[in-house]
Amino acid sequence: MKKKKGGKLKWIIIVLIVIGIIGAAAGGSEDDKVKDATEEVKNNDGKKEDKGDYKEDSEPEEKTEFYLGETAEQKNVQITLANITESSGSEFAKPDEGNIFLICEFEIANNSEKDINISSVMNFEAYCDDYSLNQDLIGLQAPEAEGKNQLDGSVAAGKKMNGIIAYQVPADYKTMEINVAPDFWSSNDMKFIYTK
Predict the structure, then answer these.
(1) Sheet architecture: strand order including 160-170
(2) Do 22 and 86 lie in a common domain?
């Protein structure tokens, strides 16, 4: 019996086609697995959600509101509203009728590599119950302010400053807000809020 010519070639071609089909099928299923993994992400509770709604390593929003005792930090400079004291003044330094002095004490730590300048007039903006306020120099003469520095001057790299700013507010005020925008913090104000 004679073997047909090209019989071996036909079997080689069939084997190659079968190998190609198996390879394509195996590769396709891997692609589907990768596709499924990228399109759906499991939550902690086991539910699936669409990849479009999932934010990987999303950064929390930067905090911009702080309260008594909290520290705001940016560019290696920390500022803390350390204390707020109410004062009715003294015989020689009295607030207007129906008002009190509010003495606000701040702590500033300069952990940066350069000196910074602090100005109680330029860097601090205050509101009492949403009304704009100017600092009150007479309030700095109140007995509760005795021995404390005004919040003005230069703070060397690696050093700290502690000082006060005084405001005159209605005795029945509800909320005090002080925005701090030192030149070393660019335009990002830090808002300190004190509620009576």
Answers:
(1) 71-74, 77-87, 99-110, 160-170
(2) no
